[in-house]
Amino acid sequence: MLRNLRIKSFQPEEEYIYLTYSLKNDKKEESRVLLENYKNLLQKALDWLWDRTRIERKEVKKGKKVITKVKIKLPKKKEVYKTLRDELEKINVLASHYADKTISDAYSILRSWKRRAEKGQASLRKPRLKKVYVRVKSTLRKVKGESVRITIRPYEYITFSWSHKWFSRRVKGLELGEPIIKEDIVYLPFRYKLPWFTPIDFLAIDSNLYTLDAYDGEKFVTFSLKELYSIKFGMELKRGRIQRFASKHGRKGKELLRKYSHRERNRVLDYVHKFVNKLLEMYPITMFAVEKLNKQEMFRDANDSLSKKISRTVWRSIHRVLKYKAPLYGSFVKEVNPYLTSKSCPRCGWVSRKVGRTFRCEKCGLTLDRQLNASLNIYLKMCGFPHIRETPRVWVGVTPLKGRRRMSGALPRDSGEAQRLRIDIKYHEIL
């Protein structure tokens, strides 16, 4: 018992993030041999495991409805590993380590399919392989200076170099992870050791259609996302016209549609990255709290007009990029359950059934904008206060607000504008 409680070291554990950069694949012929043979191995592994996968259906009564629940059992990896590896080696023309990697990738595909199928988000048919990529194990690659040599077969290699590339200075001294090879592109992940920081600030963010409303422990801050929304709206109208054109012009229309879809994705990601960079510069060494949102649940409760507006949002992209880049600034990101955050009183815990633009507590009389109220409740959840229940006697324990809020007027737009990027910030005083 005491042995398990013994502290190994007072130093914090080392943490790493991966900075990934891409190269154009200038060895397409050699790569095609690797990709085609690896696809055959992966398909063989999937077929072999699928024959040993059991799908059980069970009918459960829920009120007056009868719901069919699905339970999927995959073969245990430890029990079938050796047998499956021997089967793959019979058709393997690549290095032997690719057989081990194939088994891991096949299980990864099936576990992802199982998770979605049991939720009813995927069919119960065998997953199909579309475009295959190869993640090269550390035993199959060797780094020499600013190039990496990858083994295909014994004494047969392909080499990719990042010398004189735009990111070569950034990755100098960093350790290369497992390269990912695709038909047209090669991804190189470099491992970066994070310095240890203790957060000195906190920021709770409530994500809305046109704004991000935040609370930092002293004041509320509103970040405008109207420009990002207008980018999505304008590209959606353009995509509709291109889809009508594509339906009549076959291959030419599909290529045009793919081109504009790629352009829209790039413009949105460009804005998101610049927005997150500016946010992290304003709040370094900060603990960020964001909502763990589920768009599918929102669509069920929304009408057609609201569903279209929700589909134009990119909350998860912002949260994902923030989580990826925050450690570079000594910051951390924590996901919080958004349940009842806009309907609960942060002072007394009362839960209101009807909430309009303004939240009014029927118990203690607190009046506050609904979105700002949500950010305050997210802040309380981040700080570890108990989950708010529908009980009038629950006391949260914090009384930072009294009365109603007053808008103090918008500050001038931030001077750090880059390529039409604008972040509108408004501060609110509490009376």
TrEMBL record:
- The segment(s) forming the Cas12f1-like TNB domain are 315-378
At the top level of its lineage, which domain of life is listed?
Answer: Archaea
One GO MF term attached to the UniProt entry = DNA binding
Xref: InterPro entries? Cas12f1-like_TNB, Transposase
UniProtKB keywords? DNA recombination, DNA-binding, Transposition
- What is an example of a Pfam family matching this protein? Cas12f1-like_TNB
Q: Name one GO biological process term.
A: DNA recombination
Q: Does the keyword Disulfide bond apply?
A: no
Q: Which residues form the Probable transposase IS891/IS1136/IS1341 domain?
A: 198-300
The similarity comment for this entry is:
In the C-terminal section; belongs to the transposase 35 family.
The name this protein goes by in its record: Transposase
Which species does the entry assign this protein to? Saccharolobus caldissimus
